[in-house]
Write a structure and sequence with these properties.
Helix content is 36%, strand content 21%. The protein is an alpha/beta fold. The longest helix has 19 residues, at 228-246. 37% of the residues are buried. One of its GO terms (biological process) is RNA processing.
Length: 247
C-alpha cells in the first residue's frame, strides 16, 4: 500500500501527469485561469478525473494556501495490470474468477466488495479509470484490510478489457434485473468474470451486449434491487459453491 500524497501547484501537477504518476483525482479552483485549461486537458487525456471546487476546499486538501488553484491527490494503492490477475489464477492452478465493476461510485460499496472478494478467493477486480471510485482511504477502511491482499486493475475501457478477456478464454457474466435467466442456473465451473453494475443505473447497455450470459438475482420482496456489494457477495458465493461441488 502506498501512502496517499497531495501534489499542489500548477507545474508540479503538470509534471506528475506527464510522468505517469498514479493520480486518483485533480481538484481545480472554480476561479482558476491562465494555463489551468492545459492541466485539465492533460488530465483528461490521461484518464484522470477532474473536479472543480472552492479555494477553501483546495486549501484544506493542500494544507496550504499556496496551491495556485490546483491540487492533485495521489493514489493510496498501487494498481495491477489485468495480466497480473490472470497470472495469479494460473499460479494457484485455478480457473480464473474475476469481478468487473461498472461505474461503482460509492467507496463503501467498493470496500465491501473487496472484502467479500478476498474472503472467497476471487483472483482480482477490474475497475474503470473514469466515472468510478478508485481505492481511497474510505475504501481501505471499509475493506477491513482486505485491499492489502486483493489485486485490483484500473482500465481505460471496460468493453475493450472484456474483449481481451474473451480472447484469453474467459466467459463474461453480466447482471441485470430484467434478465431472463436466474443466477442459479449457471454452472460457473469455467474461467469467468462477473460484471457488477452501479446502484440505480446497473450495468451499462453496451457492456451487457458484450456479455456471454446475463443473469438476475430473483427477489420476492417489494424492493427489486440490491446494494451492489450485497449482490456481488451473493454471486461470489454462488460461484464458489458451484465450483466446490465440482471439486
Amino acid at each position: 500500500m502506498e501512502e496517499q500524497n497531495v501534489i499542489l501547484g500548477r507545474n508540479p501537477v503538470i509534471e506528475a501527469i506527464k510522468s505517469g504518476k498514479e493520480i486518483e483525482k485533480i481538484y481545480v479552483s472554480k476561479t482558476a485561469g491562465g494555463n489551468i485549461s492545459k492541466i485539465i486537458n492533460l488530465a483528461k487525456e490521461a484518464g484522470i478525473v477532474v473536479s472543480t471546487t472552492d479555494n477553501d476546499i483546495l486549501s484544506k486538501l493542500a494544507g496550504s494556501q499556496n496551491h495556485q488553484g490546483v491540487v492533485a491527490v495521489g493514489a493510496v494503492y498501487k494498481y495491477f495490470d489485468v495480466d497480473d490477475l490472470l497470472e495469479y489464477a494460473e499460479q494457484r492452478k485455478e480457473k480464473p474468477f474475476l469481478l468487473i465493476l461498472d461505474e461503482i461510485t460509492d467507496p463503501h460499496n467498493l470496500g465491501a466488495i473487496i472484502r467479500s472478494a478476498e474472503a472467497f478467493g476471487v483472483h482480482g477486480i477490474i475497475i474503470p479509470k473514469r466515472r468510478a471510485v478508485g481505492v481511497n482511504a474510505t475504501v481501505v477502511k471499509t475493506s477491513a484490510g482486505a485491499v492489502e491482499h486483493m489485486r485490483i486493475a484500473k482500465v481505460s475501457n471496460i468493453n475493450n478489457t472484456i474483449r481481451g478477456l474473451k480472447e484469453r478464454g474467459l466467459w463474461i457474466v453480466g447482471t441485470d434485473v430484467n434478465a431472463g435467466k436466474s443466477f442459479e442456473e449457471l454452472d460457473y465451473d469455467f474461467p469467468l468474470a462477473i460484471v457488477i453494475g452501479s446502484e440505480g443505473k446497473g450495468v451499462s447497455k453496451l457492456v451487457l451486449q458484450n456479455c456471454d450470459f446475463v443473469v438476475k438475482i430473483p427477489m420476492k420482496g417489494k424492493i427489486n434491487s440490491l446494494n451492489a456489494s450485497v449482490a456481488a457477495s451473493i454471486l461470489i458465493y454462488q460461484v464458489v459453491s458451484k465450483r466446490k461441488g465440482k471439486a
